[in-house]
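Page 47, continued from p. 46.
Same chain as before, 227 aa.
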Amino acid sequence: MAQTILLVDDEEDILELLRYNLEREGYRVLTARNGAEALPLLNTPPDLCVLDVMMPAMDGWELSRRIRAHAKSSHVPIIFLTARDSEVDEVLGLELGATDYITKPVRVRTFIARVRKALKPAEGVHERTGPLQTGALRIFPDNYSVEIGNRSVPFPRKEFEVLLYLATHPDRVVSRDTLLNEIWGRDVYVVDRTVDVHIRKIREKLEKHARYIETVKGVGYRFSVED
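Result:
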């Protein structure tokens, strides 16, 4: 079955350009012109959301918050496609759980490559298929889910992949460059703070179990397994 991509942008020419090229690549494409129009299309979560930021009725920031807040769509990758090109905006996008951040004007071939990357699991992340348990923390690679005690905690895809990579390399110091290459890939440009933002968001979700992830100053991060 074809993967479904939701495109949300108030510029009709961009919607049509991207829809045409994505459908040529075999994807099923849904379109909306603002966040409010997109919300009903999320009842059946797509495989990827591509969101403009500056839109009427509901902008991309608020729509991404809605996507992340809903258990059914919390794991769906999000790409922001926007004319806002400052590092502050890009970091905000990451804070909101974006998988990638692309600035306009859009280059179609580059865009398609980034879409493929966003839809592809990080290499090496799913070498383990069974659940991984550390104390009250359980990680399920097969369905991108995390449980703490008896509570299910939703994780956006990239946050989940970072957590899983660290957890499957316990007691090993993993550098930021290694995480960037393994999770995002060498062909995707992201800002320097990307890893740190994701680690902070992971720790917030882990709450008291955030101690499992140690910062090794000037080097990277280490997942320390409980005895």
